[in-house]
């Protein structure tokens, strides 16, 4: 169920690009100035601000009812986009969409981190994220089918409206079903005995205090004073900005940059995501198997760089399309990989929710970057946006390597007895 609702959230935040080339740009004049970029980036302001408060609320109210409320609410926003007549109203609805979607992703990572141990998380987080990417893979094809709907001769004859209307209704139905199907935190589930709940909570925690204690908002902020959290946030900023830039502009690059028709651009958007799912799950499985994170993360980042360079500097459309496969895999795979990396270096269960929320909040700033570095005036090559993404991926590889070498050294010192207590938790070791 987490995969389903997260897939819907990805679909609902990025379907504006499909609507854009299906007539939204013409009807609402989004091609004037920076209107499209504004409509994209406004989503991320409330999305960033509401992450940490939501992860404080979710543990107290419970995941099923809190997430059910959020899902239904953002579904109503998407439904409303199908009836707008001005770009200003569309922008307001995008802001509300960001507010309600903010709690899902960090909440889901918090839930997964509460159920699974250090070297069990990468493949679980990757499975959760990549299964939801099926919506990104088939979303453009689905959007194309919806854009063919025409009812009457008025506003409902515009296919882009039906993209929002149908997908909004689907999300609302998922929100209504969520309280019945979503998983809870271990201490709140009904299907475990008290003894089983105790086992579920203590197996993932090395700390001495009771893991059921919920940090307050101020306690969560104090946990984020750790300098390493800033590094995890920077890593996730790069991963998120790269993903969003490709998600928002891939159909446009295929249409304007590679010269494919509207229908073919939508269809060709799907295969790179399907390849990314298979390759990313393989990388996550290998990372858990060899108990190393950084080699996989760096290889994926370098693959993204190679893919972007192929898109940028080769001429044949088929070769450039192959580059899109590599770029999509390299950028998408490092989103769950980076989240697992941050969770694995955090010993205390109470802190993991704050770390996940902080990383994804900063990732929202990456979304703002991704929605602005590709400017319409730079078409068809989008040279500044491409090189900005390449540069950030290089920075990601360097920082990940240096941070992992630091963690390796700290583990060595702890094993030698020269640093007896990592993260203030006896027996804890980092997972570089």
From TrEMBL:
Gene3D superfamilies for the chain: MFS general substrate transporter like domains
InterPro entries xref list: MFS, MFS_dom, MFS_trans_sf
A Pfam short name: MFS_1
Protein location: Membrane
Regions that span the bilayer: 35-53, 65-84, 96-116, 128-149, 161-183, 229-250, 270-287, 294-313, 319-341, 353-374, 386-408
GO molecular function: transmembrane transporter activity
Superkingdom assignment: Eukaryota
Main subcellular localisation: membrane
Domain Major facilitator superfamily (MFS) profile stretches: 1-412
Bilayer topology: Multi-pass membrane protein
Name of the protein this chain belongs to: Retrograde regulation protein 2
Organism of origin: Clohesyomyces aquaticus
Lineage, uppermost ranks: Eukaryota, Fungi, Dikarya, Ascomycota, Pezizomycotina
């Amino acid at each position: 169920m987490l995969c389903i609702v997260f897939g819907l959230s990805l679909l609902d935040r990025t379907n504006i690009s499909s609507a854009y080339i299906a007539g939204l740009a013409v009807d609402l004049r989004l091609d004037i100035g920076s209107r499209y970029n504004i409509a994209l980036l406004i989503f991320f302001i409330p999305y960033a601000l509401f992450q940490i408060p939501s992860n404080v609320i979710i543990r107290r109210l419970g995941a099923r009812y809190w997430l059910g409320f959020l899902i239904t609410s953002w579904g109503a926003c998407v439904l409303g986009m199908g009836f707008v007549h001005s770009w200003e109203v569309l922008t307001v609805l995008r802001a509300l969409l960001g507010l309600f979607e903010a709690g899902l992703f960090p909440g889901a990572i918090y839930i997964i981190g509460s159920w699974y141990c250090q070297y069990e998380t990468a493949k679980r987080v990757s499975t959760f994220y990549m299964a939801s990417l099926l919506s990104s893979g088939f979303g453009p094809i689905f959007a194309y089918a919806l854009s063919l709907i025409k009812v009457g001769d008025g506003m409902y004859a515009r296919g882009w409206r039906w993209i929002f209307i149908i997908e909004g209704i689907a999300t609302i139905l998922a929100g209504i079903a969520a309280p019945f199907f979503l998983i809870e935190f271990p201490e709140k589930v009904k299907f475990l005995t008290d003894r089983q709940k105790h086992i579920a909570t203590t197996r993932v925690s090395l700390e001495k205090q009771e893991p059921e204690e919920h940090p307050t908002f101020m306690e969560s902020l104090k946990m984020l004073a750790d300098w390493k959290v800033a590094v995890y946030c920077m890593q996730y900023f790069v991963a998120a900005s790269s993903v969003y830039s490709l998600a928002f502009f891939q159909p446009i690059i295929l249409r304007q940059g590679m010269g494919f028709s509207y229908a073919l651009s939508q269809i060709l958007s799907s295969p790179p995501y399907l390849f990314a799912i298979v390759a990313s799950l393989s990388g996550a499985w290998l990372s858990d198997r060899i108990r190393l994170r950084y080699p996989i993360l760096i290889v994926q980042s370098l693959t993204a760089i190679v893919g972007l360079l192929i898109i940028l500097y080769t001429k044949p459309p088929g070769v450039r399309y192959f580059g899109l496969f590599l770029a999509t895999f390299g950028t998408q795979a490092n989103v769950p990989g980076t989240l697992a990396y941050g969770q694995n270096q955090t010993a205390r269960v109470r802190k993991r929710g704050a770390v996940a929320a902080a990383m994804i909040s900063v990732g929202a700033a990456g979304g703002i970057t991704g929605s602005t570095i590709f400017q319409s005036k730079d078409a068809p090559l989008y040279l500044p946006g491409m090189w900005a993404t390449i540069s950030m991926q290089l920075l990601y590889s360097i920082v990940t390597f240096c941070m992992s070498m630091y963690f390796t050294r700290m583990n060595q010192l702890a094993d030698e007895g020269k640093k007896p207590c990592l993260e203030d938790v006896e027996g804890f070791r980092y997972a570089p």
